[in-house]
Amino acid sequence: MNELLNNAAFQTYATCSAILAIKMLLTGTHTSVQRMRTKSFINSEDAKAFQGNFGEQEHPVVAHALRIQRNDLENIPLFFVIGLIYVLDGASASAAAAYCWTFTIARLLHWIVYLNHLQPWRAICYFVGYLSILGMAVQIILS
Asked: Which pTM value belongs to this model?
C-alpha cells in the first residue's frame, strides 16, 4: 500500500479525485440552497418542515441545479473508475497528470459555465472531460 501511496501517478489521481468529490458535495449543497431559497419542495414533509411550498414539479432554479448534479453523477464516477484502473495499469506520472488534471479542470469549468448558462462553453468543457476519459480508456485497452 505504501508503494501505491508513493506513486506519483496515483497521488495525482487521488488529489484530483478528492477535488472532484468535494465538487460533487458542493454541487449537492448548491441544490439544497436553491431549494431553500425558493422554498419549493416536491416532498410534502419537507414543505411542512421548512415552511415552504409543495408542488409536483421542481422550481426551474432547483431543476437547473439538479441537472448540474445529475451531470456530475453521469461523468465523475466514470473518472473514478477509469482513472484508477489507468493508474493501477502503470500509467506514467506525466500521462496521469495530463489526463487527470485535464478532466478535473474541465469539470470545474463545466460547473462554472453550467451555473451561468454559458453555451457553447458548457459543451466544450464537457467534451474535453469526455476526451480525457476516452483517452485513458483507450490506453488501458492498448496496454
From this structure: 0.91
What's the alpha-carbon Rg for the chain, to the nearest Å? 18
List the one residue out of 63, 87, 127 whose CA is nearest residue 7: 87
Q: What is the C-alpha to C-alpha distance for residues 29 and 24, in angstroms, rounded to an integer?
A: 9
Average pLDDT value for the chain: 93
Give the torsion through C-alpha atoms of 38, 76, 19, 80, to 10 deg: 150
Report which secondary-structure segment, H or E, holds 137: helix 121-142
- Taking only the tens place, the pLDDT of each residue in 89-115 is 999 999 999 999 999 999 999 999 999
Distance, CA of 83 to CA of 30 (rounded, Å): 26
